[in-house]
């Protein structure tokens, strides 16, 4: 008997996941279609596959002894990379997307029909470092009650089977929205987070835990406020694996897609571009996977061709809407904004306010318009954010956020912040504790030592709430259309600030 490698643990998880959400009335089958694990066991396998990927399972097989035909037992088939999700875009459409290592795009099944999916680029047009996978997309038409790809059900807007219009018509059913951000594992030079959970290296990266907690909330929509990819450069030790570092598919896979795999199938998503996806970092992954714009068959993937600013997105949600601003290009210099960049954002503010006029709107950008940045772990310091956006807002048509802007959502600072202003500004929320290395805690002592920060933000100390743990947010749309915004920790014993009640101030006429 000889023992051959059959499957690594990560592939075991993928096969398991293919059957977990399978609907009984689907006729398509995949390998191991009846092999199922309990949720806790499946979670253990997923974590083990990331933290201990070199582990393998072995199976013993009888070698072929027929010398006449000299046949050999074929090697086990490689399990394909496969991820699928739906995302809302600024054209009021729901897009289905797939990442696959297969050579052809799969079919999209909607109700009793099948639609073709289109590759985002040609095979030769894939970004450098992403050649191993193809990204496919298709628009899901309005009024669809059921959609699936390869037998796996796709998440649709709530009660979509009752709609004969588009996602806008379903607003009364969007009652719970999850928000998370800054989820990847930090590997930058000597600044290396404990990606593998190795003993003795400090708190482990835990985006997988955040994703599982968000999934248990059973939200109607998931908003990611940016920064998916953090494994940039550095010499790994037990805390990370060198082959998973860099601007490549392998890095994106372990940093976002594998820990988010189950959550991607739970609800539609809204994706915001973060500064880690700017034109100096992982922009190729952003445009290949998430950007709403169609790509040419053979895009120019040179850095000089990268878009610093993508168009404003207005995503209808019935009586409400989401207004998305790409702030990824803002540099980490907090006191010297570039006048050209200020002018660019001023124009985008004017467009956003005009296009969103008349409905309660949530403004979403990766960088908070107002917030507190904390840095220098060994010698904590704080500064006010974000002067580029603040100056652009002052130079805009209104000079401030008009009343139909209901609240502001952001990430970037790696913890939770809430600034419920007592003036006419909409409340600013920061959800940046999604898994990456946390920013230093913002203590009352730090605030007292830096009164200029409060002055710059025009707030009192009791108007700032912070929370320093891995977390995510839940927005509940309450009766009377009030918003209840809460922050949730992975530690059930932790006392979190809030909840915060946001009351609509009225719409422009």
Can you offer a commentary on this structure?
This protein has 509 residues and is of the alpha+beta class. The protein folds into 2 domains: 2-61, no CATH class; 82-502, Purple Acid Phosphatase, chain A, domain 2 (4-Layer Sandwich). It has 10 helices and 28 strands. The chain has helices spanning 9-20, 39-51, 207-216, 249-257, 261-264, 283-289, 339-356, 387-394, 444-449, 451-457, and strands at residues 2-8, 56-61, 82-88, 94-100, 107-110, 113-116, 118-119, 134-140, 147-149, 152-153, 176-180, 187-188, 191-192, 221-224, 231-233, 269-271, 313-317, 320-325, 361-365, 371-375, 381-385, 405-410, 416-419, 427-431, 465-467, 471-477, 483-489, 500-502. β17 (313-317) and β18 (320-325) form a beta hairpin. α7 packs across α8.
Number of domains: 2
At CATH level 3, the topology of the largest domain is: Purple Acid Phosphatase, chain A, domain 2
Count of DSSP strands: 28
The CATH homologous superfamily of the largest domain: Metallo-dependent phosphatases
Helical stretch count?
10
**What is the CATH C level class of the largest domain, in words?**
Alpha Beta
| Mean pLDDT across residues | 84
Tell me what portion of residues adopts beta-strand conformation: 25-35%
Helix content range: 10-25%
CATH-level-2 architecture of the largest domain: 4-Layer Sandwich
- What does the overall shape look like? globular
Radius of gyration: 24 Å
